[in-house]
């Protein structure tokens, strides 16, 4: 079996209940660069014998797992889910109850739009012992590597994380994004939107409608921390057009606020950032 390309799946017959459930470790894999893993996460990867990993976990991170470990791919991409979230939780609990220690490897930080909180709740309710090892979030990595401080005394006194997932269309109505636009459109704050590339035109329109200037600095960071990282800087009004023009693809993080303008000053001195302004 190839550890990277041929995920292992378990049948119900392999999950005979053990006398007591094994331990589950929820691990944040960070944004992609294995050098950004915490020491504790890297140690856990080197010791794990069974790993359930997500779509956004990079192959470079997976290479840190021991050669004899079993890997199960449970990634979810837009329009294609290997397992439902409920299926992932059921599998994780079933394996732990069979006596196998499980390392659940999630991109970024498990508790920041990684549905790690749901998985932790399910483990607690099922009586499965677990721990959580945090990871550097996509927002932290994207901001730092693109020369965009998420907070700054002169520009942003608060920081808001949101998700830009499109809601399914109601009959007769267009697809929408269900966010607190009044709260997001406040001055002197940084807004970071995960999974917002597909809804970028809606986000731009709504924030302008709710009071933000069309000239508010904004940036898209694609594939943060990887060799393919790109940073596209514009304004709230121009960024949707620029994203289409430059062919930005997910995963991409949206940063809105005055701090985004600092990219031009800070990024030239940062060799790790591969940005296009």
TrEMBL record:
Record family assignment: Belongs to the precorrin methyltransferase family.
PROSITE patterns on file: SUMT_1
A Pfam family it matches: TP_methylase
Ranges of residues in domain Tetrapyrrole methylase: 24-239
Protein name: uroporphyrinogen-III C-methyltransferase
A single BP term in Gene Ontology: methylation
InterPro entries for this protein: 4pyrrol_Mease, 4pyrrol_Methylase_sf, 4pyrrole_Mease_sub1, 4pyrrole_Mease_sub2, CobA/CysG_C, Siro_Cobalamin_biosynth, Uropor_MeTrfase_CS
Keyword Cell wall biogenesis/degradation carried by entry: no
First-tier enzyme category under EC: transferase
Keywords for this protein: Methyltransferase, Porphyrin biosynthesis, S-adenosyl-L-methionine, Transferase
Source organism superkingdom: Bacteria
Organism name: Roseateles subflavus
